[in-house]
Design goal:
disordered N terminus; binds iron/sulfur cluster
């Protein structure tokens, strides 16, 4: 372990303000947010939530101008199957109520939609259009959550809601783009963002450009590694909180390791035509499957190599090239 956490590690929105991003499904610690940091710079907040908070809390977030992303997968049949409450009951009614609240206040927000080949993505998007949703962040289901003990893709998976393989991913994704366009919904997706910008790293956290501070004081390099007991905590630990000093210690050697997971450096990716769209995909998913931080994310790889030529042809066609 080396130096304490420096201000430049804070995720800066621009030169004069700070973006504080929260991936949390439990809002109780949020009673006291600051609008300016100690230097007087504005602080902005972004929350990714399961959308089951009380109306009072949702209203409070609106007054604090939180950027809100709600994880929701579709009509009640799908939502309740994928995202039950801790007591086993469905979450759809509560989440719908909160979506109605945001829409009624004309408050901008995004739905984080995870899709499986089992479900009809067109029906799902129509449902969101009817609710008044204007922004959808679309990502496929991957077999790497707490529920999935073994990473298996496609229909051969033993799981009822199985993760899609290349062709299924592609078909649903293209259907989703067309349907969102039809209903005036803006669609976000990692591939589309990376395709338009070009990247060297798949994500900010696994390249140590941003960090997740967990409830038990771990500085994590992955949004999915959320406490010290996670089986991948050692791989993604960038430091930890030192209670006595009220400071974070950073592991500089780990930062160096994470910076090496770059599109131009990854052994299996450095010569790939799509490396600046994909950069090896999600590190934690590669670790789940291969136990190797420098491996590629298999399902992302197949999807990327298929979608990039399609997107290029689509742009050329639409531009009359
Ligand atoms: S498409 Fe595959 S080979 Fe190419 S950069 Fe992505 S993971 Fe690596």
């Amino acid at each position: 372990m080396g130096t304490v956490m420096e201000p430049e590690w804070i995720n800066k929105k621009d030169n004069n303000s700070i973006l504080f991003e929260v991936s949390i499904n439990h809002p109780c610690w949020f009673c006291d947010v600051t609008e300016k940091n100690r230097d007087g710079r504005p602080v902005h907040y972004l929350i990714t939530t399961n959308g089951t908070a009380s109306s009072k809390f949702m209203t409070w977030m609106m007054t604090k101008k939180f950027a809100i992303s709600i994880s929701m997968d579709g009509p009640s049949k799908i939502q309740d199957r994928n995202r039950p409450l801790a007591n086993g009951n469905g979450s759809s009614k509560i989440v719908e109520r909160n979506v109605h609240l945001l829409v009624s206040q004309h408050y901008p927000f995004t739905i984080r939609l995870t899709y499986s080949p089992k479900d009809d993505v067109v029906t799902i998007i129509k449902y969101f259009a009817k609710l008044g949703v204007k922004n959808i962040h679309l990502e496929p289901l991957f077999p790497h959550g707490r529920f999935y003990k073994v990473a298996k893709f496609g229909e051969k998976s033993q799981y009822n809601v199985y993760p899609p393989v290349k062709k299924e991913l592609l078909t649903k994704f293209l259907q989703a783009i067309d349907t969102c366009k039809k209903y005036g919904i803006r669609i976000y997706n990692g591939h589309l963002i990376h395709f338009t910008r070009g990247i060297g790293y798949f994500c900010g956290a696994a390249s140590a450009h941003s960090m997740l501070a967990t409830h038990d004081g771990l500085l994590s390099g992955c949004l999915e590694v959320v406490d010290r007991n996670d089986k991948n905590a050692k791989t993604f630990a960038l430091g930890h909180y030192v209670k006595e000093k009220h400071r974070f210690n950073l592991d500089k050697s780990k930062i160096k390791t994470m910076r090496a997971r770059h599109a131009d450096l990854l052994p299996k990716c450095k010569n790939c035509f799509a490396r600046y769209v994909c950069a090896g995909g999600c590190a934690v998913k590669a670790v789940h499957v291969f136990c190797n931080f420098f491996e590629k994310d298999l399902s992302y790889c197949g999807f990327t190599r298929a979608i990039v030529p399609i997107l290029i042809k689509k742009i050329a066609r639409d531009s009359g090239v």
